[in-house]
Design goal:
Elements lengths: L5 E5 L8 H14 L6 E7 L1 H12 L7 E5 L4 E8 H10 L5 H16 L10 H13 L2
């Protein structure tokens, strides 16, 4: 069996991340998206760190839940997820758990790495993401 070409990295300690479950979700999601041996990373960071990235790369001086940075030369890119924001979103939701919210953010970030952009398209990403969220219950 081929080893996946994606990394799950936890660079924060505020909320426990079950890397095994994230990798299992990716092992189902990646082929469902039609990706063949993609190389990318999912990195869990703090609100402080994601705020810095959001400020430096998007000009928004505030934390956010997920940021995606496309790669090059065959590397799909990096997905950064704030575990703090993901946890707080789940607390406020009557539908999402922390784990399902993490899955939702991984899905969202991966769609961006694939070239989807909800800020510039005509709703295609939102519709596609909604169908996938129903399919994967996240």
């Amino acid at each position: 069996m081929a080893r996946p070409n994606y990394l799950v990295i936890n660079q924060q300690r505020k909320h426990a991340i079950n890397g095994t479950r994230v990798r299992k979700f990716l092992s189902i999601l990646v082929p469902a998206l039609g990706l063949v041996d993609p190389s990318f990373s999912v990195v869990f960071i703090t609100d402080k760190d994601i705020r810095r990235y959001n400020r430096d790369y998007r000009g928004l001086d505030k934390p956010t839940d997920v940021l995606s940075f496309p790669g090059e030369n065959g590397y799909l890119g990096d997905i950064l997820i704030s575990s703090e924001t993901a946890y707080n979103q789940a607390l406020k939701s009557n539908k999402l758990t922390f784990e399902t919210n993490v899955q939702r953010l991984v899905l969202h970030g991966l769609l961006h790495l694939m070239g989807y952009d909800h800020e510039t398209d005509q709703g295609e990403m939102k519709a596609f993401e909604r169908r996938l969220r129903r399919r994967f219950q996240c």
